[in-house]
Design goal:
Blueprint lengths: L1 H5 L11 H26 L4 H29 L20 H4 L4 H25 L3 H17 L2 H9 L2 H33 L1 H11 L2 H26 L10 H20 L7 H26 L4 H24 L1
Length: 327
């Protein structure tokens, strides 16, 4: 019983037989090929040229896999042992298709080069341990091939994605990032920062009680975050507008809404009313300037115009809250 509990779940590469090394190489080439096809499928609609890069890389992996299978059949027969990278200690793991399919295009290219480098190191180690001359030669040849393919994503990119295409793809990726994360997050931050000003400062000046004010601010912020998140996710599924996943947009909007309200509610955890109110007002202006900066950075709104709109609107709501609280 105890031997089962403490038995390692993964084997070191050194413990594998030559047949198992070939079987591991076959399954690894198959996995890498599928991952490249997953990249291609995910990128095809928005980045067709980069999709062709990964399709070519998948074809390379398929050729390597067939070479390994042919060698296994000649050396050990048709029955290939079931051994995969997750069975071997220190062997680089691969993310499943549903994760790699959502990876940004730049990250996908970097990951492809890292995969080729890991394959190169694996074949070097496997070839060094092989005692069969033909198998050793095959593994050594594949190590050389993988080393050459370490920059395959870049080399194929030069063929299929010249600089002009890469610039266009980068702009498309930036636009998608803005539509999916920045725009709903900015709307949430503006709503949370501005719409909660009136109830929080009205409660503060009406009661003079920091704890009660904090509870009002907490409830207003959380409630607004939930409302904005569900509204953003429900009103547009992203298929026609191209704004991306409604879940991602809803989370971005809801979380930033809550953060916007909590920023000037948290100071009221300080029991001293004047100090808490002074810090809360300072936080409000930091939030408003942050909104103006984001508008200028990502939405290309002139900074002075963005600052004027946000600060003016926030100042009016803040003044309304103070006046109502003192009524």
């Amino acid at each position: 019983m105890f031997s089962r509990l403490f038995r390692p779940h993964k084997r070191p590469l050194e413990s594998l037989s030559e047949q198992e090394v070939l079987a591991l190489a076959i399954s690894s080439e198959e996995d890498d090929g599928r991952i490249y096809l997953a990249y291609a499928d995910a990128l095809r609609e928005q980045f067709p040229n980069s999709a062709r890069v990964f399709e070519d890389m998948a074809e390379e992996e398929s050729r390597h896999r067939q070479m390994l299978i042919d060698r296994h059949v000649r050396r050990f027969g048709n029955r290939i042992p079931l051994i995969r990278r997750e069975h071997v200690r220190d062997f680089p793991e691969r993310k499943p298709d549903w994760l790699v399919g959502t990876m940004p295009i730049g990250k996908a290219r970097e990951q492809a080069e890292a995969m080729e480098d890991a394959a190169h190191r694996f074949y070097l180690a496997a070839a060094a341990r092989s005692e069969d001359a033909e198998t050793r030669k095959l593994l050594g040849d594949l190590a050389i091939a993988e080393k050459a393919h370490e920059t395959l994503a870049r080399r194929l990119g030069e063929e299929h994605t010249p600089d002009a295409v890469k610039d266009a793809e980068s702009e498309t990726a930036r636009r998608q990032f803005v539509l999916t994360y920045v725009q709903p997050g900015l709307a949430g931050l503006m709503d949370g920062s501005v719409s909660t000003l009136a109830p929080i400062f009205a409660a503060a000046f009406a009661t003079g009680d920091t704890w009660q004010t904090f509870l009002v601010g907490l409830s207003a912020s959380v409630g607004a975050g939930i409302s904005m998140g569900f509204t953003e996710a429900a009103h547009d599924d992203g298929r026609i507008s191209g704004r991306g996943s409604p879940v991602k947009r809803g989370l971005a909007s809801g979380i930033m809404t809550a953060i916007g309200g909590l920023g000037h509610a948290l100071p009221y955890l300080i029991p001293h009313f004047a100090l808490a109110t002074g810090i809360a007002i300072a936080v409000v202006f930091i939030e408003l300037w942050a909104i103006a900066f984001i508008q200028n950075r990502y939405m290309e709104t002139p900074f002075l115009r963005a600052a004027f709109q946000v600060v003016l609107g926030g100042g009016l709501v803040l003044a309304a809250g103070v006046l109502i609280g003192n009524a």
